[in-house]
Structure formats: structure tokens, C-alpha cells
Amino acid sequence: MSAHDVVITGIGLVSSLGEGTDAHWHKLTAADAAPTVDATRYPPYTVHPLPEIDWSLQIAKRGDQRQMETWQRLGTYTAGLALDDAGIKGDEGLCATMDMVVAAGGGERDGTVDDAILAASETRNDREVLLNEKLTTELRPTLFLAQLSNLLAGNISIVHKVTGSSRTFMGEEGAGVSAVETAAARIRSGQSTHMLVGGAFQTEHPDMLLGYELGGYLHRGPWKPVWQRDGAEGGGVVSGSGAAFLVLESREHAKARGRHIYAQLGPVISGRARRSKEDLATAIGGLLDKTSLPDGPLLALSGASGAHAATAAEGSALAQYGNIAARGFATLTGHMKEAQFPFAVALAALAVDRKAGYPAFDAQAEKRYEGIPHSVLATAVGYHYFEGMALVSASD
Amino acid sequence: MAHYHDHLGRPLVAVTGIGVVTSLGVGKTDNWTALTSGRSGIHPITRFPVDHLNTRIAGTVDFLASSDKGASALTFELAEKAGREAIAESGFDTDEFGGPLFLASPPVELDWRERFSLYNASKEGSASDRLLAVARNLQTLDIFETSQFGSIAARLADEFGTRGLPITLSTACASGATAIQLGVEAIRRGECDRALSIGADGSATAEALIRFSLLSALSTQNDTPEKASKPFSKDRDGFVLAEGSAALVLESLEAALARGATILGIMRGCGEKADDFHRTRSKPDGSPAIGAVKAALADAGLGKDGIGYVNAHGTSTPENDKMEHLSLSTVFGEHIRSMPVSSNKSMIGHTLSAAGAIEAAFSLMTMRQGVIPPTINYDNPDPAIELDVVPHRKREADVSTVLSNSFGFGGQNTCLVMAREPV
């Protein structure tokens, strides 16, 4: 135990299952946990939609809400939940010295404007002039800011006054892995005392589906659990809207504030297998080797996306370790891209804190786990590239 | 051993390789010659039609193979060219670099030409149905790659043999500086003894131009493009959108000297401070920028008399230049009168995600060459901004430390302090 150990003192979660740690714990530990899915809005795709959210609970000013689209609101809101949970929200001193790493993609484009341009392109050959004509007259100036990747962090600074430092990492699941890894490294080295780290993904926009489907990654047809989509129509990913933010602190800092510690964040290991040249399962096995896994049965919160090759490789790598009971939470939340890894770490920390595992989310594919999880593994193997994992343990 | 570590006991970080591409050319030599001759790279836009546009000039990079292939392809090529030059200069293998990669690049979006081609390849259903139906039947991953935020870094990692999961980042117009800061920090924490930091931006599309135009951020002085970017001038009216890239090979000084590498400069300190005032405007009292400059000085272990030259953010927007002057004069007090402060953007425009990296590269060259590039177009000085901007012509000067500022939308403020020698 060291003063610079990284501990988790705040968790903010939003997904189709609800908002907050309690709602997620209750839904995910229920014997008959069922997903919330919407198969009607984007056929032939299914998505896990956002729940009803009263944005004003975390974003007090209507003016601030108006400056954002749903993705930024979702992230800013969930960051607020985490800050609240850690007892930092509204504490000017702590917020002004808090460092932040956000994993982000991009925000929502204006579908109405885009569709009008596309429709006009059917009858015009001067498409570049058409673009200038429409974009100069129909784009809302503020929408650009609602799309910019680093403006999720920017809005968190404005709304919650987190202003120590602000960095935005991009790159799908890998961005979430690097964000957690970098935040932990800063605390371990004494560079930061407390950090806000996380990400958000809003899938309910055609462009967000297109981001997967240009690579043929989306599952089509009836919903299935994440491990059972191989062989079904499409690429295996069912996406979900959601967000996860964590407050990480040095043990010393958290103790001095007398805060509840959910868990300690142990090794965070990242990698980039060259998937076209090397065996992904072997590469994931290599990461597991580096994660200092404890002996005995181990619960793993797997961020598996359902993408056929990556999910099969992860399943086989985890199975080869023999005593890992994986929980593919995307079965119930959908795949949340940049937020996937922070979400996995958050669910792992909850299990450690509540001294209980999650029942199988897919009784056919997932092993039973009983007992008190002292350590829990969190993984995110990208649907296309980038891999990462972390070990979360009881803090005492 | 003490001289391998800084005032806080951390490993000193040296620069052993530099690569640059801007609208002035490819490579350090061409860029430096142009920059020190006071030549502008700003020109009329020819990449796309300028009908209906208020701004019809830019500092685009039009002379690469991918210059007309979309933002993703061009950003990759810019990053690749700068990275290759930097690694080659450092003496490491260009295909087996062996350290982590930090890439500052613009957020990606599906290019309009792809959107048009997907849409018009189908005739059924709503626009989004058509795009999605065509997308799922594509036979290659080419378009997919352009829509993934991590794919440029993944390709660079393959090409250069960098280690581990590459980090792609955005801190808006401070991104290039942040990429360098992340590399410096990784070496200081002992995670690696070398890192490759790249800032690259090839995203000067019509839509990007229109978006900045709608925010009234761009100069509209189209008639004399080379005169449009005029930082610190009274008649400055916005920045000029531009493209470019720079790469630095960062290395622990100890490791660099052990292998006999040439030391091109030292990354002495990094500082940052986020602003919570507004999405595009900075706090009127300049406190976040002031905080970032002070944090960089403290990190470098230097006082307010420790900086020999400021490579300004100097965008040529009314707001930035005023705020930057306020923050510099607040931090440096009387010293600022004797400190040259110039803006490379007067010649190369604002290269957005790449700016912090390009300007760090030029800062290092300034020290090594003993020549300060000028601020051109300083014909009507802003009387409210009393700075020695090194007007019109380069100046020979013995510069041993530089402060390079980068400020961006979203309250991003990052400052780097560089030194010629380890001290």
C-alpha cells in the first residue's frame, strides 16, 4: 500500500439501464436482467437507447444545455454524477486543481441540413458549389462546437469548473483505455492528486451507426447476447448510448478527505495487436500475462463488442486462463465505444465495493461466479483495433 | 549524473529529431529558409470552389500526393512526412522506432465526397437508410478507415514501428503542444526513454472553412492573401486557416547522449490550465492563459527573467492577440519590453491541430540557428499591444530559452518552455 496508489472515489454511469451506480447494480444483479432495446428506430439495427434524463439535475443553466447536443450533454451530465459521488462537485478548490482526461469521438451533425444537401445532390453536378451554398446558409454556428471532440471536456470545465488540465483522447475503445491508463500514471507518479476520467457515446444518430457499418460491424436482425452473435446476420455489434466517468485519486488524497474508496485501480495494460498479421487471442493473452492476475476464480467485466473476430478472440483468450468468469456487459448496455473501458472499470469497482459478483448476463456462455470478488478484471478489446485491460481490487 | 535530471529530479528530455511540413514546403530546410525570409504561404484557395464563401484564402498544403484526397489521407501524409524526417534525423530506424506515439490530429468526419458517393449508390429509403445500406456492402475498408478516430495513428504506428497503443488527441488549437507534453511526461515518468510526438492537420475542407467563418474567426482579406495574417496589428481581422505538420523525437537526455545523438534542444517545461469561461472566448482577466504560462515556467524551474524569446500563439484574431498580450505582460511585467515575441502564423497561418508542434519545431530551430523569424505584415501596430514583435525581418539573436504558447477553443491553454542546452 502506498500514498500514491490510485483509488476510485467517484463513479458516474448512464446507460439504457438507467443512471447512477445503484440503478446499474440493481439491474445488473437481478436474476433475470433484460436489456432495454429499440429495434424500430434504425431498422435493421437494434440500439440500446438513453433513458429519460432530466439534464438540469447536472447542467443547471438552460443556456449551457442549448450549447450542446445530446452527446456532450450526456458526458457533461455523467461527469457531474461522478463528481457528486466523490464529493467534489461544487468544491471550487478541488475542481480548479482537478486534472481531466476525456475519451471522445465526435458530436452529432445536423441531419436535416445533411439530408437536404444529399437530396439536392441527386439533381446537381456542381456538388462542391452546392455544399458551399447550403452550408453557409443553413449551418448553425454553434453546432460546430457541439461536434468538436474536445468540447465535451470544454463543457465539463464550463459547467462543473474542472480546470486543472484538460485533455481529450480520440480513437474509439482505445481512447478510453489510454485515458484511464494516463490518468492512473499521473497519479502514481505524483503528477496529479485527483482526476476525472471517462467518456460518453450517443449512438442514436445515423452517423454514429455509420461509423461502425462502413466496416460492416453492426449486428442485424433480432437481438442476441454479445457472445452469441457469430453466424447471425451482420457484424455482431449492437451499440448503446451511455457514459461512464470515474474520479481517481491518490490514496493519500482520498484519505485526507475522508472519502469512501470503491476500489483500488491496479495495473492498466494497453496494446495494439497487428490483427492482420498476428493472432489476436495470443496478443490478448499477452496482456493478461502482464496484468498480475490473482490465483483462483476471477470475475471479468468484459467490454466485448460482439464484433465477430474480436469477441471470439477475447472469449478464447479468457477461456484459456481457465478460471475467469467473464461478464459481457454489452449484452445489456450495448457497445458504448469510447466509454466502454471506463464503464468496464466502473462495473468492476462496484463489484469489489459491494463484495459480490454479477450473475451471468448470458447463462449459455458465461460461467457461474460465486464468492466475494477481491479483484476484478476489466477489459476492452476494440471491435477493429486497440486492446486494454485493468485489474481493480479491494483497497485494503 | 545530476545533469541528466531537472530541478525536480525528473529525467531531462532532449529533442533529437525534428520534421516539418507547412504551406511553405516539405522539410526543415525549405521551411526555415522561407520563414526567415519573411515569405508567406497564404494563397487563394484552389482545392475547392469558393463560391458563396466570405473567406477565399488559406495556407493549404497543395503539393502532396494526397492534397486532393480528403482530410484523412492528407493528415496521414503530413504526419508521415514529418515523422519520417524527424526519426531519420534522430538516427533511429524509421521502421522500428520503438517508443510510443502521440498524435495530435483533427477530429475526423466522413468526407462529403464519400457521403455523396454512398448516397447516390442507392435509390431506396431515407438518406440515412441509403448510406447505411451501401456502407454495409462495401468491399473495402478504405472509407471506414477515414471515419475512425484512431486509424491515422494506427497506420503511423505500423509504418514507424512505434511501441504500444498510440494516443490520438485533441485539445483544439493546443493539440500539437499537448502531443509534445504527453511525450515529455511519459519520459519523465520513466515509461520510455524515447517518444514520437506529431501534430498534423490536413483538414482545410470547405466545411471546416465555413464553420470557422460562421464563428467569425477567419480573416476575410482575400485580395492580398499574403498580407491577411497580421498578428498584433491594429487591423487584424481573424486567422487564416492552414495545414501542416511537425514531429519531434523526444528522448531522455541520458539515453540520447549515451548513443551519441545530436541534441537539438531540451524540453524544459510544460504548463496548462483550462478555462471555464466560454466555449470560444477566454476569461476576460486572462487568468487561465496566465496560469498556463506560469505553470510552464514553474515546471521548467525558471523565473520571469528566464525566457529569451516568446513564440506567440499570435493567431491574428482580435481576441487572441489582445488576451495573449495581457497574459504575457502580466506574467513577465517589465521584462516583456526586452523580450522579442513573434508569430510564425503571420507566414504559415493557423495550422490548428498541428500549430503547437510546428511552432515548437520552429522555436527549437530559432535557438539553434540564432535567428528569430519575423512577424510579417506588421504595418499598422496595435497601440494597445506593446510588444517587440520582430517586425518584417528576421533578427539574429542569441536565444537560449523559448516560451511557445498554444491556446484553443474549449478553454485549452498549453505552454511549452524549451532550452538550447541542458544547463
TrEMBL record, chain A:
**Keywords, alphabetical:** Transferase
Q: Name the GO terms of the biological process aspect.
A: fatty acid biosynthetic process
**NCBIfam families noted in UniProt:** PRK06519.1 (NF005084)
Q: Which InterPro entries match?
A: Beta-ketoacyl_synthase, Ketoacyl_synth_N, Thiolase-like
- Please give the start and end residues of each transmembrane region: none
* Organism placement in taxonomy: Bacteria, Pseudomonadati, Pseudomonadota, Alphaproteobacteria, Hyphomicrobiales
A Pfam family found in this protein is ketoacyl-synt
Ranges for domain Beta-ketoacyl synthase-like N-terminal: 4-254
Q: Which GO terms describe its molecular function?
A: 3-oxoacyl-[acyl-carrier-protein] synthase activity
Indicate what this protein is called per its UniProt record: Beta-ketoacyl-ACP synthase
From TrEMBL, chain B:
What is the recorded name of this protein? Beta-ketoacyl-ACP synthase
Family annotation (SMART domains): PKS_KS
NCBIfam families recorded: PRK06501.1
Q: Name one GO biological process term.
A: fatty acid biosynthetic process
What the entry lists under PANTHER family is as follows:
3-OXOACYL-[ACYL-CARRIER-PROTEIN] SYNTHASE, MITOCHONDRIAL, POLYKETIDE SYNTHASE-RELATED
Residue intervals of the Ketosynthase family 3 (KS3) domain: 10-420
Pfam families, per this entry? ketoacyl-synt, Ketoacyl-synt_C
Q: Which CDD domains match?
A: KAS_I_II
Q: Which family does it belong to?
A: Belongs to the thiolase-like superfamily. Beta-ketoacyl-ACP synthases family.
Source species = Borborobacter arsenicus
| Associated pathway | Lipid metabolism; fatty acid biosynthesis
Keywords associated with the record: Transferase
Q: Which GO terms describe its cellular component?
A: cytosol
According to the UniProt entry, its GO molecular function terms are:
3-oxoacyl-[acyl-carrier-protein] synthase activity
